[in-house]
Design a protein that fits this description.
heterodimer, A: alpha/beta, Aspartate Aminotransferase, domain 1, four-stranded antiparallel β-sheet, 15 helices, globular, B: mainly alpha, Sufe protein. Chain: A, two-stranded antiparallel sheet, Cysteine desulfurase, sulfur acceptor subunit CsdE (chain B), Fe-S_metab-assoc_dom (chain B)
C-alpha cells in the first residue's frame, strides 16, 4: 500500500518551517523535493567516491564510471528504452537546445516547425531561434478555447501542414493538463515529421512508457523527478539520435583528435562533451530507485485523490477561477481569485507558510490568450497529502480575507 | 526623516503580526492617488518586476526637489511604492542622498521586500530614485 506518512518522512525538507509556520510545499512543478537517499548519495559521492568518469584506470574512476553508467541503465529501464538512447544534459532546456541544434542541418527555408500554444518558453524559444537561422517557419497547433489540446484537431492540422518537426508538451507546466499524445505522434509518423515531446512535467508523475508513446525524442529534468538540480537529459530513438549533429564539442565526446581533425564517439557519448554532472547522475539513481519502489498505480491514485480534493475545496470558494483541466491532470492547478493579482495572493500565502508560484510560469502566450497577467499555481507531488490541501485552503481563505 | 513618512509608517510600526502589517501596506496603496494614464508609459515601467510598476520621476528646478508619482497593478507592491514615495517625495537631491531606504524598510520589518530576488522591483525603484538624486546634486 501507499504509505504516505512513511513517504513524507523520507523528504526532510517537508519538516521545515517558513515564516514561523510549518511549510506547505506546493511548488513541485518548479522543482520537486528530494528524498534523503538522494541527499545522502550526493554527500557519499563527494566524501568517498569522487573521481572523474571515462578516464583513468584507477579504482575510484572505474567505480564512478560504472555508477554513472548504471544510472543511465536505470533511467532507460524507467522509460522502457535502451541505455544508449539516453543522453545526459543539464536539464530539459539544454536538451531541447541540443535537439534543435542537432536538427539544424536538415531544415531548409520554408520548412515548418509546429508547436502548441501552451508550451513552456524552453520549448518555444529554441525553435524560434532555429527557424531564424534556417529560414524555417514556426507554426502553432490549434488550441481550444479552454486552452486544452484536442489531439484530433492537432492531427488534422499536422496532416495538412506537413511540418518537419512537431514539438509538444506531455503535460503543461502552467495548467498540468496531460496531452493525449498518441493521435499526434501517429500523425507525425504518417508524414515523417520528427516528434519532440517535452516531458519535464510528466516524467515523474506519469512514468512514461516511451515505446508506447512512440515519439522520436523525449526530454526531462532530473530535479523535477526527485533528483538533483543541474541535471536532465533526453531520450532519442537510436537511429535518429546517432544522426543528430553534435551540440557542443571538446573532451570526453571525441574518439580521436589530431590538430587538423577529430572523430566523435557514438551516441550518446558524442553529446556529452566535457566532465559531466557526475555526482548528480550518480545521486539521480536513488531518485529513480525511489520512484520505482512505489507501485505506479497506487502512486497515481494517491496523487489524483489529493488533486481532486484540492480542486473541490478550491472550487467551493466564491470568486476562484480555475484554469486547469480538472480530470486529466498531473497535479498542477492554476487559478486566480476575482481580479486580484496573483502576486498579492502568492505573497500572502507565503506569509502563511504555503509555497506556491505566481506569474506567467514561462508561458506568456497562455497568459496573453487568457488576458491575465498570470496565475497562482499550486502544484502537487506524490509526497503531498490532504493535510497540505487543508492548510493551503485555510491559508487561502485567510489571504482572501486580507484582500477583501 | 520627513514627517509624511513618519505619519504613514506609524500604523505599520505598531501593527501586530505580519497580517496587520500587510493590511496597512495595502491600505497605503489604496490611498495612493491614481497615476494619470498619460504617465504610464513604457519608459516609466520599472524593469525586473513580476508585477507592473510605474515610477515617474521629475525634478522641480524652482523648488529644487524631487517630484514622484507611481502605480502598480498589485496591492502589496503599490503599498510599498507608497512608502517609497512618502520617503522621497519633495526632498532635495541632497536630502534624498542621505536617505537609506534599506534601513527604513529594515526598521519596519519589511526588508525581505528589498532583496533583488523578490522580483517586485522595490530595490529597482529605490535605485532609480537615488540615481536621479545623484544626477541633480
Amino acid at each position: 500500500m501507499f504509505d504516505i506518512a512513511k513517504i513524507r518522512a523520507d523528504f526532510p525538507l517537508l519538516n521545515e518551517t517558513v515564516n514561523e509556520q510549518p511549510l506547505v510545499y506546493l511548488d513541485s512543478a518548479a522543482t520537486s523535493q528530494k528524498p534523503q537517499a538522494v541527499i545522502d548519495a550526493l554527500a557519499r559521492f563527494y566524501s568517498h567516491e569522487n573521481a572523474n568518469v571515462h578516464r583513468g584506470r584507477h579504482t575510484l574512476s572505474e567505480n564512478a564510471t560504472r555508477n554513472y553508467e548504471h544510472t543511465r541503465t536505470l533511467l532507460a529501464d524507467y522509460f522502457s528504452v535502451k541505455s544508449n538512447e539516453i543522453v545526459w544534459t543539464k536539464g530539459a532546456t539544454e536538451s531541447i537546445n541540443l535537439i534543435a541544434n542537432g536538427l539544424a542541418s536538415r531544415l531548409n527555408p520554408g520548412d515548418k516547425i509546429a508547436l502548441s500554444a501552451i508550451e513552456h518558453h524552453a520549448n518555444i524559444v529554441p525553435w524560434q531561434q532555429l527557424a531564424q537561422r534556417t529560414g524555417a517557419q514556426v507554426i502553432i497547433l490549434p488550441i481550444e478555447n479552454d486552452l486544452s489540446i484536442n489531439s484530433e484537431h492537432c492531427s488534422e492540422f499536422i496532416t495538412q501542414q506537413r511540418p518537419k518537426i512537431v514539438a509538444i508538451t506531455h503535460a503543461s507546466n502552467t495548467l498540468g493538463n496531460i496531452t493525449d499524445l498518441a493521435p499526434i505522434i501517429s500523425a507525425c509518423k504518417a508524414i515523417n515529421a520528427i516528434s519532440v515531446v517535452d516531458g519535464a512535467q510528466a516524467a515523474m508523475h506519469l512514468r512514461p512508457h516511451l515505446p508506447e508513446i512512440s515519439c522520436d525524442l523525449y526530454v526531462f529534468s532530473a530535479h523535477k523527478m526527485l533528483g538533483p538540480t543541474g541535471l536532465g537529459g533526453l531520450y532519442g530513438r537510436y537511429e535518429l539520435l546517432k544522426s543528430l549533429d553534435v551540440y557542443q564539442t571538446g573532451g570526453e565526446m571525441i574518439e580521436t583528435v589530431s590538430l587538423t581533425q577529430s572523430t566523435f564517439r557514438d551516441a550518446p557519448g558524442k553529446f556529452e562533451a566535457g566532465t559531466p554532472n557526475i555526482a548528480g547522475v550518480i545521486a539521480f539513481a536513488e531518485a529513480i530507485n525511489y520512484l520505482t519502489s512505489l507501485d505506479f498505480q497506487q502512486m497515481r491514485q494517491h496523487e489524483h485523490t489529493v488533486f481532486a480534493y484540492a480542486i473541490n475545496q478550491l472550487a467551493a470558494i466564491d470568486g476562484i477561477r480555475i484554469y486547469s483541466n480538472q480530470e486529466c491532470n498531473i497535479g498542477n492547478i492554476s487559478f486566480n481569485y476575482k481580479d486580484e493579482h496573483p502576486f498579492d495572493l502568492a505573497t500572502l500565502l507565503d506569509g502563511f507558510g504555503v509555497a506556491v508560484r505566481s506569474g506567467h510560469h514561462c508561458t506568456q502566450p497562455i497568459m496573453s490568450q487568457l488576458g491575465i497577467p498570470g496565475t497562482v499555481r499550486a502544484s502537487f507531488a506524490l509526497y503531498n497529502n490532504k493535510d497540505d490541501v487543508d492548510a493551503f485552503i485555510n491559508a487561502l481563505k485567510n489571504s482572501i480575507e486580507l484582500l477583501d | 526623516m520627513n514627517s509624511t513618512f513618519k505619519a504613514v509608517t506609524k500604523d505599520i510600526e505598531i501593527a501586530a503580526g505580519w497580517q496587520q502589517k500587510y493590511r496597512q501596506i495595502m491600505l497605503l496603496g489604496k490611498q495612493l492617488p491614481a497615476m494619470p494614464d498619460a504617465l504610464k508609459v513604457d519608459d516609466a515601467l520599472v524593469k525586473g518586476c513580476e508585477s507592473k510598476v510605474w515610477l515617474y520621476i521629475e525634478f522641480d528646478h524652482s523648488e529644487n526637489s524631487l517630484v514622484l508619482a507611481g502605480d502598480s497593478d498589485t496591492r502589496i507592491v503599490k503599498g510599498l511604492l507608497a512608502l517609497i514615495l512618502a520617503l522621497y517625495n519633495g526632498l532635495t537631491p541632497e536630502q534624498a542622498a542621505q536617505i537609506n531606504a534599506y534601513d527604513e524598510f529594515e526598521r519596519l520589518g519589511l526588508i525581505n521586500h528589498l532583496s533583488p530576488s523578490r522580483g517586485n522591483g522595490i530595490k529597482a525603484m529605490v535605485d532609480k530614485i537615488q540615481t536621479m538624486a545623484e544626477q541633480k546634486r
